[in-house]
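Agenda item 2: pyridoxal-5'-phosphate complex prediction
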Amino acid sequence: MTESASLYRDDGSLWLEGVALETLAERFGTPLYVYSRAIIEDRYRSFAHAFAGSPGSLSCYAVKANSTLAVLGVLARLGAGFDIVSGGELQRVLKAGGEASRVVFSGVGKSAGDIAMALDAGILCFNIESAAELERIAAIAGARGRVAPISVRVNPDVDAQSHPYISTGLRENKFGVDMAEARALYRRAATLGSVRVSGIDCHIGSQITSLAPFVDAMARVLALVDELADAGIVLEHIDAGGGLGVVYRDETPPATAEYARAVIAQLGGRKLRLLTEPGRAIVAPAGVLLTRVEYLKRNGERGFAVVDAGMNDLLRPALYGAWMGIEPVRPRTGALETWDIVGPVCESADFLGKERLMTLAEGDLLAVRGAGAYSYAMSSNYNSRCRAAEVMVDGDAAFLVRERECFADLVRGERLLPAGG
Ligand SMILES: *Cc1c(COP(=O)(O)O)cnc(C)c1O
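Presented output:
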């Protein structure tokens, strides 16, 4: 519950809150995801406090970063808002005790069924990403006798060249609409009886580690807000999106308070409710993946530690070449050697880390840091591997919040062809 909750070493071993990670691996097996309730709460509160000076502000946790019910439940109890990208995520939020009135719905491909579900639940806002989506939402709302609150997701086209530290995706045309199209969508929306123009939103990328892109994007979006107001279209809220980076290695992302100050400063005296959609910044530091060394092998010069977690459990290194901290839970003495930490999956991309210096023996337990975001949430059953279990630590207690999958889970819903023929 303190601001300093984090993974730490005591007596040579790694701990999360009042629980030694070794004991969790023994009790629940590996690979195992472990989350700290205190860190999740600290991180969410850091956003809530940082934006508290802006009346009506709401941080809508981006569910896709980690949609485990227990994680959503911890956040729901803090009164969090949620940013969803599917009907499945909406159902998770509601099941975890979250309030529909605090939910914003993002995503380029909202299905008719998901739109109807969100309308009936009474969400805060649909973040619209195309003209076709606006028409679809208006039609569905009209048919159900409802009025859909909408925001247009604009692509502020912040110059990626001048901010080379922003990861790719900034200019992805798939997301949002440009300024000119946004103007047209607002004019169209103002004529539709079954939608209510509520706000404007943007989301410029993820793992952003400086303030400049956020400030530039806000400035551009606010220029459009002012222009719309002059044309008689007055917005109630602005949603600055997510994207605040975290430390995986040696990055120096702005503190939440610094980020909030910069965003609020851009707002100036405008009476707009400020929403944000942080995902990674809330959950990444709250999770570790525990994995055991199965085999050590050498191919020529190269040393491989084959561990029991693979790319199906943790895709980030394979998908983005993401660097994640890996360390022995209880380091042993002896000569340091260089190891590639690889999984059992039959793909060369199946690695968790490359060229890591440590002293290892078979059976050693490793911890992968920063595995609270985009980790379990992206896991799969590739190679017919059962997905890992998840544990939430709360003080001295540890709760199994998701059982390890078993073979029956793998084949649920599958059928052989009829006999004969
Ligand atoms: C993924 C996403 C977020 C969260 O991004 P983080 O980098 O995890 O903070 C927020 N909003 C939208 C629309 C997203 O797609």
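Discussion summary: Residues 62, 64-65, 83, 106, 203, 206, 241-244, 277-281 surround pyridoxal-5'-phosphate (CB under 6 Å).
Owner for follow-up: CH.
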